[in-house]
Amino acid sequence: MPRRDFPSRREDLRNVAIVAHVDHGKTTLVDAMLWQSGSFRANQDVADRVMDSMDLEREKGITILAKNTAVRLDNTKINIIDTPGHADFGGEVERGLTMVDGVLLLVDASEGPLPQTRFVLRKALEARLPVVLVVNKVDRPDARSQEVVNEVYELFLDLDADESQIEFPIVYCNARAGQAGIRENELEADLRPLFATLLETVPAPAHDPGHPLQALVTNLDASPYVGRLALLRVMHGTLRKGQAIAWCRADGTIENARVTELYITEALERVPADEAGPGEIVALAGLPGVTIGETIADPEDPRPLPVTAVDEPSLSMTIGINTAPLSGLDGDRLTASAVKARLDQELVGNVSLRVRPTSRPEVWEVQGRGELQLAVLVEIMRREGFELTVGKPEVLTKEVDGKRHEPVERVAIDVPEEYIGVVTQLLALRKGRLQQMVNHGTGWARMEYLVPARGLIGFRTEFLTETRGAGILHHVFERWEPWHGELRTRPTGSLVADRRGPTTSFALSSLQERGTLFVGPGTEVYEGMIVGENARSEDLDVNATKEKKLTNMRSSTADELVRLIPPRPLSLEQALELIREDECVEVTPKGIRLRKVELSSSKRQSQASRRKRELAASAGA
Buried b vs exposed e over 195-227: b needs ≥16 C-beta within 10 Å? Predict the structure, then answer.
C-alpha cells in the first residue's frame, strides 16, 4: 500500500530531500533556509556550507554522506535530507529517498541537468515522489533559465514520468543571497516563495492510526556516549523512550529490545525527545548490532517492512597492508587485523560497499560504485593513521545468458569548441559512442557518450591535460552491455628506481629529459618505486640516487646550477587512475607513492620474458 494512501496525515510535518548534481548549490541553499527560519542566533558563528561536516567534504566541495536537518516555519516542521549528488555515493541517495514524501530538485541555471541529476531524479520518479524544481544561480552572467527548464521537461519525458509528475512547480533562486521567486526576474528578498511552494506541493506524512508501530532503519551513526544510533523514519504508531520494541533483523529473526535513548533533529542539533509520532525522522539508541534496512515494530504485532534495495557495485580494487620497504615510518595502524576491522566497520554504515577475501590473507577486494567512493574510503583511512597498499581499480563483470557483460556509463562532457576533435579522438580509443552533441552558441559544446566503465579509469587525467583544464566531465552508470573487447591502456611507461637511497639533483636532472618526475631531490626511494612517467611506452629502470663524483681537480663546470623542473604532485585519485595492472599505490598518512607490485627488477624481467614465451607459444598453436 503506497504510503500516501493512508487515512490520516500529520499537517505539522513535511519530509523533503534536496537532490542535485555536484556543486549546484544544494548545501548552500540549506544554509540559507536554516538562517531564514531562525535556526541560528543573529551573532552565532556558523561555517559556510554548514551541512558538509567532514573535512573531506569541505576540501572537495562535495557531499558524501546523506544528512538531515530540520527547519521550523510557523507551526510546521520541515525535515530536510541533504543527499550526495555524486553517483558513487548513490547508496546514500536511495536510502534518503525512503525517508521523504517529496523532492526538491535543484538545477544550475547555466549548466542545466547533468548526469547525476538524471541518476537521482530517476530514483525519485521510481519512488513516485512529487518534485519541486528549483533553478539556482539565476544571477550568473551566463544563466539560461528558460532553456534549462525545457531541458528538465525533456529529462522527465526521457525517464518515462507520468502526467502528474511532469506538472511540477518551478521556483527561481539565488541561494547564496537567500532570494527566491516564482518568476526569474522578480526574486523576493527572502526564500518565502520557496517555503510556500514546498508546503503546498509536498504532502504531509500519511499514516494509519490503527496500525501497530512500524519504523524503517535507513542510516546509522555512532555516539561516544550511547553507542550505535539507528536513524529511522516512523511509518506508523509512536516511538517512546524506554518502550519495549520488536527488532526485525535482516536475516528474518525477531528480537525483543528496548529504546534506551530517542533523539529528534532541531536545526543541526540532535535533541533528546520522550516520544516521536508517525512521519518523524528520529535517532534511536539501544540496538548494538542494528544494520540498515531492518525494521523496528510493535512486540505484540511485529510486521517487518521490505529491505531497501541498493544498486550493485560496479568497480573493485584491492586494499592490503603496506608491504613496501618504508612501511611503519609514517603510520601507527599497520597490521592486517586493524585494516580488516576498519573495513568491517565501514560496511556497517555503507550499504553500497562489499568486502571479499582474496587468495592472500593480508589483502581484501573492496567493491564499490566508483573510483571516487573507493578513493574517499582510502583517504579517510589514511587520515586515521593506516598504511595501505592499494591496487588498480577494475570493473566488475557479470554473466548474462552465458555471455560476459560489463557496465557502460553515460558520460556528459562540456568543452570549449576547439577541443571537440581532441575529446572525440580520446573517447573513440575507449570505444565510446556519441549519443548527442549540442552547441549552445556560447563557445561551449555539450557531448553525451556511452563508454565502457573500464575505459573511464584513468580518463579524467588525460582529459584535463588535453583540454588544458577547461573541460567538465561527469558520468553515471547506464546499463550492462556485452564485453567490448580489448581497450588501449596508458600510452606511457614508468621510470622505476633500481636501488634504495635519497634522490639527488644530479641524477634527477638527467632523468627529467625522459619524462615527468613524481619526486623531488632528497626524497627517500627504494627498488621498485616509481619515480616518474616515461615518455615512451616501456618501463625503464633508473638510478635516481646517483651522486656527482667529486675530484680535487678544478673544473669550469664544477658549480654549475642544476635547474630542475618541479615534480608533479599526485593526489590519491590521480595515482589510482595512473597505475597499470602490475603497479599499486602505497598510501601512508604523510604521502602517496607509486610502486611495482613486484619490487625486484630481476624478477620482473623474468616474468616479462615468461609472458612473451607463453604468447609466442599460443600464437604458434
Answer: bebbbebbbbbbbbeebebbbbbbbbeeeeeee
Pairing of β 170-174 and β 131-136:
parallel
Neighbours of 514 (CB within 10 A): 16
Q: How confident is the model at residue 311 (pLDDT cuts 50, 70, 90)?
A: low
Stated length of the chain: 621
Between CA 286 and CA 294, with CA 288 as vertex, the angle to 5 degrees is 90
Q: In the numeric block, which cell numbers belong to residue 147?
A: 532553456
Residue 378: count other Cβ atoms within 10 Å of its Cβ. Answer: 22
Residues whose CB falls within 8 Å of the CB of residue 430, separated by 6 or more in sequence, listed in order: 451, 452, 455, 456, 459, 487, 488
Q: Give the model confidence (pLDDT) of 248-269 as tens digits.
A: 887 778 888 888 888 887 766 7
Distance CA 524, CA 522 (A): 6
Confidence of residue 1 (pLDDT cuts 50, 70, 90): very low
Three-state secondary-structure class, residue 510: helix
Percent above pLDDT 70 for the chain:
86
Pick from 387, 385, 337: nearest CA to 362: 337
- Amino acid present at 385: G
SS3 content of the chain, % helix, strand, coil (to 5): 25, 35, 40
- Residue 506 and residue 236: Cα distance in Å, rounded? 74
Angle (CA) 177 36 268, round 5°: 110
H-assigned helices in 55-191: 55-60, 90-97, 115-126, 145-158, 163-166
pLDDT at 51: 43
Cβ atoms < 10 Å from Cβ of 489? 12
Pairing of strands 13-20, 76-82: parallel
What pLDDT was estimated at residue 529?
92
pLDDT > 50? residue 64 = no
pLDDT single digits (tens) 493-544: 899 999 999 999 888 988 888 888 999 898 999 999 999 998 888 888 999 9
Q: pLDDT > 90: what percent of the chain?
A: 5
Q: Count other C-beta atoms under 10 Å from residue 316's C-beta.
A: 17
How confident is the prediction for the chain on average, in pLDDT? Answer: 80
Bridge partners, residue 278, by sequence: none
Per DSSP, 621 falls in state -
C-alpha distances (whole Å) from 532 to each of 105, 575, 593, 598 are: 44, 12, 11, 17
Residue 352 has pLDDT above 50, yes or no: yes
The residue with greater pLDDT, 285 or 523, is 523
Written as nine digits, the cell of 531 is 619515480
Which residue do the cell numbers 627498488 mark? 527
Q: Which triple of cell numbers denotes residue 424? A: 572525440
Position 576, amino acid:
L
pLDDT of residue 224: 67
**Alpha-carbon distance 470 to 447, whole Å?**
14
Q: What is the dihedral of CA 421, 423, 429, 434, to 10 degrees?
A: -90
| Angstrom distance (rounded) from CA 98 to CA 93 | 9
The cell numbers describing 250, all together, are 535482516
pLDDT at 543: 92
DSSP-derived pairing of the beta strands 102-108 and 13-20: parallel
For residue 297, which amino acid is it?
Answer: A
